[in-house]
Amino acid sequence: MQSTADLFQRDERASAIDELHFATAIYTCEPVVDALLDRVSWPCGTRALVDTSCGDGAFLRRALARLLQRHSELDDAELLARIQGWEIHPFAAEQARCTVAAVLGEFGYAPDRARQIARELVRCGDFLTDGPRAPTFDVVIGNPPYSRMLNVPELLRDEYTRLVPEYARADLLHSFMDRSAKVLRPGGELALVTSDRWLGNQGAARLREEVGRFFRLAHVERLDVNSTFYRPKQRRAGSPPRVHPCAVVLKSAEGVPITAAPIYPGIATAAEAPTGRTLGDVCSIRLAPWLGTAGIFLVDAAVAEGLPREHLVPAIDTDDVRDGQLREPTRFAVATTPHARPPQAVLDHLERTMPRMCARGRRASCAWLPPEPFHGFDLSRPSLLVPRIAKNLRPVHIPAGVLPVNHNLSIVRSGEYSLEQIEECLAGALAADWFQLVAPRLENGYRSITTRLLRQLPIA
């Protein structure tokens, strides 16, 4: 007889699994499944395939059909040794078993026999915690879950943290990729639909390095989010998942090396990117300072009238730009330095407004400095402003003496290139192609632009 504690723990775990499924269950359309299966050497010979998070069985359905078309003579034990699926959510696992049984029925299996095979073929369990620890398979295929580990229910997150190496803990996808690599025998292959975050994010550099110990990049391509997935769970009808999917195939002896460097779909590795001079070679690229809560170090014209003019700098953000042109600045940054006490009018203003400063903007010392001081920011020359979130590279001319703010990017010439030549580089076809391939995707066509990305941008 089960104790109350056992029942409670079981219910708590079931709730955690439901929550995880709610957040991560998106299923893959058949053309994408078939394209990935085409890229692996299976069902050749006696190679074994596994889907580590099979959902409703989309990959298993197509893989099983291929296996039975090629090897119709397999007995039940041989079949189960060649293909396997894992699914943590009981309802989804039952869906996958029904899918497998239906395929077996199409190949002449009696209903009872088909259901029995399906129950053994699809295992209801957590592959990360319950799956094999030794090399067992030759191909891992599927669409593993994508979720930052911080968003994974605490009960499951604690289990994973104990089992998953540190470099694979940032995202559930990282954990599945690491575990998948370790259950493959020599010559193994991974063919997965993944989000693009692990390919380019700096936080996944160690994961890429570890994966590169076992595999080379045989194939990578971006997929259309609107046609890659079907029945995105718990989302509005017709609403695509908030991911940017890629098809990724990793093989031990085929493709280009994988290192900690970012991987850009369309450019196999950073080493194969256009070589020669980059934007970082010909100009200075800096992140514009963040001044904290508005109204304290970043003030409007009315507040500025009560402050000394010599302690005010015109400041601009992206909302000061219309149709690529900079409007007259309407805000001012309160300029201070660490070694000179500002006038009393400035101190009175800061004392009056500082209680409104957000927690991350507060300073433990030298209270008259903003969260990110800008006294060293070069405002003596004109610059180019590049928004940190944009659909394309479209810089805006900023006159000397004007401060860009809020982590937008500021470009100042530092070599033989004029500001106009730098702008021409940013507007060129080479930069546009690079931007489309490399810049991390956000929602609604927007991209994240960083100083690192701009410094790496190739110039003609």
Automatic annotation (TrEMBL):
GO terms for biological process: DNA modification; methylation. One of its GO terms (molecular function) is nucleic acid binding. InterPro entries: DNA_methylase_N6_adenine_CS, MethylTrfase_TaqI-like_dom, N4_N6_ade-DNA_methylase, SAM-dependent_MTases_sf. Pfam families: Eco57I. It comes from the Bacteria. Residues 135-209 form the Type II methyltransferase M.TaqI-like domain. It catalyses: a 2'-deoxyadenosine in DNA + S-adenosyl-L-methionine = an N(6)-methyl-2'-deoxyadenosine in DNA + S-adenosyl-L-homocysteine + H(+). Its EC number is 2.1.1.72. Keywords: Methyltransferase, S-adenosyl-L-methionine, Transferase. Belongs to the N(4)/N(6)-methyltransferase family. This is site-specific DNA-methyltransferase (adenine-specific).
